Amino acid sequence: MRILLTNDDGFDAPGLAALRSAAGDFGEVSLLAPASQQSYVGHRVSTASPLRLTELAPGDFHLDGTPADCVRVALRGLGQTFDWVLSGINHGGNLGADVYTSGTVAAAREAALLGVSAIAISQFHRRPHPDDWALSIALAKRAIQHIFAAPSSPNTYWNVNLPHPVSNPNAISLVHCDIDPAPLDVAFTRQGQDFLYAGRYMARTASPGHDVEHCFGGAITITQIRISPLKLPSTCHKPGAFDTVEYA
Fold first, then answer.
1. CATH number, domain at 196?
2. Residue 240 falls within a domain, yes or no?
3. How many domains does one find in the chain?
4. With 112 labelled, which of 4, 76, 84, 175 sits at a CA distance of 20 to 30 A?
5. Pair 89, 17: CB distance under 8 Å
6. Which CA distances in Å does 35 have to 10, 13, 32, 60, 74?
7. Band of the pLDDT at 133, cuts 50, 70, 90?
8. Is residue 244 included in any domain, yes or no?
């Protein structure tokens, strides 16, 4: 099995090193990650400026682009073939509405758009507890093994969030659930004409049965996200068949 690793925290992030350790048990690993921090860039891609690729070691590269750029260059620019793209391990959760702003998740989504199976993996961090990347590796291995054994489905990708802190790793459950549809806690402090974001991650709504509630509660959450176009209901107007409206 050939596995491509990427992330949005940058090629030298400890979470990417942790993912490499976890993924190494499953196949041949290569890396193409951003040269710098790219958190919260969402699915931004570069089309009007060159992307500088730097080889770090045989099969390992960094790119001065976004996570989605990295996947595009690996799969289409270099023409490499991979069975899976794994993105992460992100330092912080990517739950619910986070999937729309996360560069980590965007990399997995871009891979799925290009026809390659993908998983985004994020480590939820509850302050002031310290990071435990060794534990993240163990939990990520469990999630990866579980997903690799699951039936594959085209036009989908996986979003995984690891809980934090963990008192008893052996008691952690893996929960399949949907992403939480509730918005984040969005708030600002104002200083004259300047606005500083002041939303609190832990103050977000945790809708019953969804990923936020389960991950905050100590479970590994696994969500399969579909990217195929939605079929319009039969009651919708067909293109060009809108009613004519006259205005007085």
1. 3.40.1210.10
2. no
3. 1
4. 175
5. no
6. 6, 10, 9, 12, 14
7. very high
8. no
What is the signed CA dihedral for 24, 29, 31, 37, rounded to 10 degrees? -20
Which residue has 């103050």 as its token pair? 203
Cα separation, 84 vs 160, in Å, equals: 15
Residue position matching structure tokens 């399949």: 176
For the cut 90, the answer to whether the pLDDT of residue 186 exceeds it is yes
Q: To the nearest 10°, the Cα dihedral for 112, 84, 86, 22?
A: 160
Judge contact between 56 and 17, C-beta under 8 A.
no
Is-contact 74 2, C-beta < 8 A? no
Q: What pLDDT was estimated at residue 233? A: 54
Distance CA 217, CA 203 (A): 14
Distance CA 17, CA 150 (A): 25
Whether the Cβ atoms of residue 246 and residue 174 lie closer than 8 Å to each other: no
Residue 138's domain comprises 2-226
- What would the pLDDT profile of 111-126 be if each residue is shown by its tens digit? 999 999 999 999 999 9
Predicted local confidence at residue 242, as pLDDT: 41
What pTM value is reported for the model? 0.89
The DSSP annotation for 183-222 comes to PP---EEEETTEEEE---GGGS---TTSHHHHHHTT-EEE
The pair of structure tokens assigned to 41 is: 């860039």
Look at residue 53 and tell me if it is in a domain.
yes
Structure tokens at 31: 């890396």
Helix (H, G, I), strand (E, B) or coil at 182: coil
Q: Which helix (H) or strand (E) holds 62?
A: strand 60-63
Q: Quick one: pLDDT at residue 166?
A: 85
> Residue 84: which of 139, 160, 180, 138 has the closest Cα?
160
The angle formed by the CA atoms of residues 115, 21 and 167, to the nearest 5 degrees, is 110
